[in-house]
Design a protein that fits this description.
α1 links the parallel β1 and β2. The protein is α/β, with parallel strands linked by helices. Helix content is 43%, strand content 15%.
């Protein structure tokens, strides 16, 4: 397993079964990623602590000790996007892609990167397609592009 796709739920939602959605399963298959989905309404800080415990337990239960140190690609809508942003600010050395949707990006915590972020790439793609809305398939393409670049693969 090369990384973990972290999909965060909106307020009151449940993202634990999202791995069955085509765009997420395609991404995981292409890049050798495991999946963690969330459910709940905790504060982002409490959710972060819970997430760390879940990764540790997931690593033990699945017999994949490498998951404890695996990089994350994360996304979520609304409150889930807030957690995706929180994960980026709490563990920037581990997050290779973060796509908060309908939530603010916490760049006030650290200096914004000079290169485009994942959300910029999704938005730019949506505009190039003549839309102000981001199609769901763009998320998979964006995360895949970032994962390939993280491995040194062009394109």
């Amino acid at each position: 397993v090369r990384g973990i796709l972290v999909v965060c739920n909106y307020a009151g939602g449940d993202a634990r079964q999202y791995y069955t959605q085509n765009w997420y399963s395609t991404f995981m298959s292409l890049h050798g990623f495991a999946f963690i989905g969330s459910k709940g309404n905790n504060s982002h800080l409490a959710s972060y602590q819970t997430f760390l415990r879940a990764v540790k337990q997931f690593s033990l239960d699945s017999r994949h000790p490498e998951l404890v140190n695996a990089p994350y690609a994360t996304t979520g809508f609304s409150a889930g996007g807030g957690f995706a942003s929180r994960l980026l600010t709490e563990a920037p050395e581990r997050v290779i892609a973060s796509v908060p949707v309908g939530a603010r990006i916490n760049f006030d915590v650290f200096k914004a990167p000079d290169t485009p972020t994942a959300i910029h790439l999704v938005y730019r793609h949506a505009l190039s397609q003549g839309s102000r809305r981001t199609p769901r398939g763009s998320l998979t393409r964006c995360l895949s592009r970032i994962a390939r670049k993280g491995r040194g693969i062009a394109g």
